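Structure, all two chains, one model.
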Amino acid sequence: MQYDLQPLLLTFQLALIVTIILFVIGLPLAYWIAFSRNRFKYVVETLVSMPLVLPPTVIGFYLLIAFSPQHFLGHFLESYFGVRIVFSFTGLVIGSVLFSLPFMVNPIKAGLQNFPYELMEVSYVLGKSSWETLRRVILPNIRPALLTGLVMAFAHTIGEFGVVLMIGGNIPGTTRLASIAIYDEVEALNYDTAGLYALILVLISFFILLVFYYLNRKTVKLF
Amino acid sequence: MIRLNFKKEMHTPQGREWLDIDFNISKGGFVTLFGESGAGKTTFLRILAGLTQPQEGHIEVDGEIWFDSHKGINLPIQQRKTGFIFQENNLFPHMTVRENLEYACGDQKERNSIDEWIRTMGLKGLEGQKPDKISGGQKQRVALIRALISRPKILLLDEPLSDLDINARLNLQDEIIKVYQKTGITTILVSHDLSEVFKLSKRVFVIDRGKIIKSGTLEEVFLNNNLSGKFKFTGEIIEIQKDGILNILTLSIGNNLTKVVASDEEMSGLTIGSKVIVAAKAFNPIILKA
């Protein structure tokens, strides 16, 4: 049996990078959706949740078209910055960030909306800015929601297939993720190798979720 | 001096009402805003603290303009320096008593005063406890210290005692009087409990459906119709006993229980729990030292 750990390492590398990026953009986005009175927030909220209902191939397809050098965005990036997004690791990151966005944003949004608003007002009256209130009052009290967002975004990125196949293809060492490698090995009738990759993914996912549910045992389950 | 003159639309269960305020409070005073729930009391305090914005008006505290709709001034909540105590949910649940107090401190001097506050407010030994481990009365005391520790210009109390049992309430009333005397801070209390108003404040504004309908000293507002020597109390029926042709009612009036006699005619429509007015026509009552 021939096997290569590269797809697995690449998968976890991608999941880690995507989770970090999602946390950085997901927290302010969730905060804005939870507390803004802007009437366009429902449009943003809907867009964030679109990956939950669309087939992954649809998002992958649009990204592939948008970033292909024949179209405006892809052409612009390539001719001015020399960057090619399609069939690259960067492309995987962009696709995965969009596709896992609701898994980060929705739990944090729910945590913020359930947080007693009076406590924020108490903090403002005590002279603290919104940033200090977020950091010292809100975040410590919504830890379970943050943990849920982080774990779900990470786990969901590991489990991706459609989006990454569309935009990344199957280039060993660059875009060949574990989920794609399994598909590839099955097509080549290498059932043993496919089985090994599959088993490793099952075990790792199981332990990530087990630790998560154990840490969150005292709080409300969001999923 | 606090000058207040503003209008704010409110959505109440009775429909739309305008909160229409125009009065002044002298520096260092202790006044009460008395009224039923939905009258606009809480909205009034929120507007003062900057948590809610009025449609129009002018708010000035010690010469500093906090809000002026014509000049486009709206001082942020953080810069108003008010102490605000809500009915409940005042303390941060993830912080201990001491951490809650430290959160409010602006400088080292204020941090150094924490121990003395804890001692004088009878909270010694509880510094390391989280809010869910202390009683409702203790929580409100911590909230009171936290509101005062950075020396605000006004203390706003939004029915801070309404969730407490009677003993804790009486205790905290004493504490409020104590800190008011100690700090001399301008205090505005919102309440619908008459005994509390009498115990705590000297001036009262009665608010009904957004408008101040009466104001003045306690005597002027609540007692001026009673100079004829007639008594009038409101109470609640606790027990009804039948004794021959008479009924003996046990009433709870304020914090006291009392028994009165009622005829069958007076009894019609009354059951345990009914609110009643007890009036006496005595012209010249006996007064004894309590």
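The radius of gyration of chain A is 20 Å.
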